[in-house]
Design brief:
Layout (H helix, E strand, L loop, with lengths): L6 H5 L4 H10 L5 E2 L11 H12 L12 H15 L9 E4 L1 H13 L5 E6 L5 H7 L3 E6 L9 H7 L4 E7 L11 H13 L3 E5 L24 E6 L12 E4 L2 H14 L5 H13 L2 H23 L12 E2 L10 H12 L1 E2 L1 E2 L11 E4 L4 H16 L4
Parallel strand pairs: 1-10, 3-4, 3-5, 5-6, 6-7
Antiparallel strand pairs: 2-8, 7-8, 9-12, 11-12
Length: 386
């Protein structure tokens, strides 16, 4: 039975986020600020639409591409919001969350040993999925540029084998985002080198300080961009697992082929609920966004006041404080905090090898939990005379 496991899979590290999530499951009185999941339940009218679809007998497969009415609704939504026009039949694919969409996009475009530029710190699945697709992830350390990709640093990492670049904004884990001007400058480099761009914009509705600009809405970007989005974060629909990909029809067709053989289709109940989410309007989303913004102020000011330097995230629901002055490394800090004070956070090393001086803290938790967590973190630090 030697060598039974694929070498790629065997050398792959488990998700650093899930490792801490699993630790928390068996513990009592833990405040979990680890997993990036809204603490709100899906708005009632969306849940009701899912329930009603079952009562009406909608229990069959759908088209591999997804329900026609959902693809049409997404097309109208993107036209209204970003002035983007995607053909529902050829340029939109419904997926099992953005995670599947991202995997499909990579497998559709990457040939063996193609290089894909990956921002670091970045979401835990980006690099491993590039490797599973047969490509080589090239990590771009963004720490020196306030955790943002810049044209200069992108250009520095491009060579003749570079095929694509990953964008994610607002960013997990840092919460930084990009202005239209910054995205325009990035697109000039992408266009110059004829790269493909996979733009993960799942947190776009949770942008706090300025309006979100979709990357394919930048002049000249749409033709080389696969735009990924979904319902998990904005509508608190993580468990429904509905995402979508929009892009050039040849790429979407290739992604659909893989989707046909691996997933077949997204559950119809979830798709019916997603239709209602788009029809219901943005009031529930705006209410959740206002609450996240309030929590952001509490967690960022609280962390800074107890000695952990933390920038103000521009979107998503994560803080990324620096713990360098504590003398502890990220894993040591996170394990000690969980053991001694029962507060779960994620070590920065889950998002890039060079982030041993950082933690990711999710503020998608109640105000009471956040305030209590800050008290416990301060106690943890005082015990070490920080």
């Amino acid at each position: 039975m030697n060598n039974i496991i694929s070498k790629k899979v065997d050398k792959m590290q488990p998700s650093g986020i899930r490792a801490f999530f699993d630790l928390v499951l068996g513990m009592k009185d833990v405040i979990s600020l680890g997993v990036g999941e809204p603490d709100f339940v899906t708005p009632w009218q969306i849940r009701e639409a899912g329930i009603y679809s079952l009562e009406q007998g909608f229990t069959s497969y759908t088209s591999n591409k997804g329900l026609v009415k959902l693809r049409m609704a997404i097309s109208r939504y993107l036209h209204k919001k970003h002035n983007l026009d995607y053909c529902p039949d050829q340029e939109i694919l419904i997926t099992v969350g953005v995670s599947e969409a991202f995997d499909l996009a990579l497998r559709a475009i990457v040939n063996p040993l193609d290089k894909v530029l990956v921002p670091s710190p970045g979401y835990v699945s980006y690099g491993p999925l590039v490797e599973l697709a047969g490509g080589i992830p090239v990590y771009i350390d963004t720490k020196a540029d306030n955790f943002k990709l810049t044209p200069r640093v992108i250009e520095k990492h491009i060579d003749k084998k570079t095929k694509a670049i990953i964008l994610n904004y607002p960013t997990n884990p840092t919460g930084v985002s990009y202005s239209k001007g910054e995205l325009t400058a990035i697109n000039k480099v992408i266009s110059k080198h004829r790269l493909l761009c996979i733009s993960d914009e799942i947190y776009e509705d949770l942008t706090y300080d300025f309006g979100h600009t979709a990357f394919p809405a930048i002049p000249g970007a749409k033709q080389h961009t696969v735009y990924l989005n979904g319902f998990s974060k904005s509508f608190a629909m993580t468990g429904w697992r509905v995402g979508f990909a929009c892009g050039p029809k040849d790429i979407i067709a290739a992604m659909t082929k893989i989707h046909q053989y691996t997933i077949m289709c997204v559950p119809i109940t979830s798709q019916m609920a997603a239709c209602e989410a788009l029809a219901a309007g943005k009031r529930p989303v705006e209410e959740m966004k206002r609450e996240y913004k309030r929590r952001r102020e509490i967690i960022v000011s609280g962390l800074n006041s107890i000695g952990l330097e933390c920038n103000n995230p521009q979107g998503a629901f994560y803080a990324f404080p620096c713990i360098k002055n504590t003398g502890m490394k990220a894993m040591q800090f996170a394990q000690g905090l969980l053991k001694e004070e029962k507060v779960a956070v994620v070590p920065g090393t889950a998002f890039g090898y060079n982030y041993d001086d950082y933690l990711r803290i999710s503020y998608a938790s109640s105000m009471e939990n956040l305030k209590e967590a800050l008290i416990r973190i301060e106690k943890f630090l005082k015990r070490r005379k920080i």
